[in-house]
Fold this sequence. Notes:
By secondary structure, the protein is of the alpha+beta class. It has helices spanning 14-23, 37-42, 45-55, 59-63, 67-88, 90-94, 126-137, 167-179, 199-202, 217-223, 225-228, 232-240, and strands at residues 4-5, 8-9, 24-26, 33-35, 117-119, 122-124, 186-188, 193-196, 244-247. The strands form 4 sheets. Strands 7-8-9 form a 3-stranded mixed sheet.
Amino acid sequence: xxxxxxxxxxxxxxxxxxxxxxxxxxxxxxxxxxxxxxxxxxxxxxxxxxxxxxxxxxxxxxxxxxxxxxxxxxxxxxxxxxxxxxxxxxxxxxxxxxxxxxxxxxxxxxxxxxxxxxxxxxxxxxxxxxxxxxxxxxxxxxxxxxxxxxxxxxxxxxxxxxxxxxxxxxxxxxxxxxxxxxxxxxxxxxxxxxxxxxxxxxxxxxxxxxxxxxxxxxxxxxxxxxxxxxxxxxxxxxxxxxxxxxxxxxxxxxxxxxxx
Length: 260
C-alpha cells in the first residue's frame, strides 16, 4: 500500500490516480468524462486499499497538514467514496433496478446521508465531507466543479487525483473545463441569456461571499467569460452584462460509459 507509509501519508495520492486513469474515459472534445463502472466493479481492490488508507488518517494527523494537503485529501475522499458507493451497489445498476445515484435510497435516508465509511475517526456520509467539512473549512467555491456525485450532468471526474502542489491550478482547470462545455453552460445571444448548470444555483451562496473575488454569479461569468463564450461576439456580449441567468435541467443518470 502506498498511501500510508512509515514517513506519513502519501500526499500525491498515487493509488487513486492509478484507479482513475484505468476507469475514467474522456470524451472526444475533452470536456466530459464517464466512468467504466463494470471494470471498476471487477477490480475494486486498489480503490478499496486507497480508501482504507484515507480512513486510517486520524484527525490529529490531518490537523498537522498544509491547507493544500487537507483540501486535496477531502476532495479525493468525496470522489473516491462516491465511486465505492456505486460499486457497492453495482448489481442494482447492472440489473436496471437503479439508474441514478438517487435511486440508492434506504429507509428515510438519501445516498448522501448513508454512513458507510470512516474518516478522521468518525463514521461519515458524503454530505459530511461536502457540507460539514469542505464548505465550512475552506473558501474555495471552485470546489463545486471538483466534487462529482456520479451523475451525467456533474462536472467531469478528473483522471488524476487532486494533489497538494497543484490543487488550486486543478480547481481553476476544472472550472474552465466545466464552463466551456456548451451542454452544461452556454450563451444564448438570441434570448440574451447565459444558461448555467444547476450546480451554480444550488451553491449560489458560495459565490456570493467574496471568496476569490466572487460576490455574485455574474462575477463568475465575467471571470470565465473566455471559457463560456464560443466566439468574440459572445465575449463582447458577456462584457456588457446585459443578460439574465437561467439554468439547465439536471441529468441524474449514472455517469457510466454507456451514456456517452
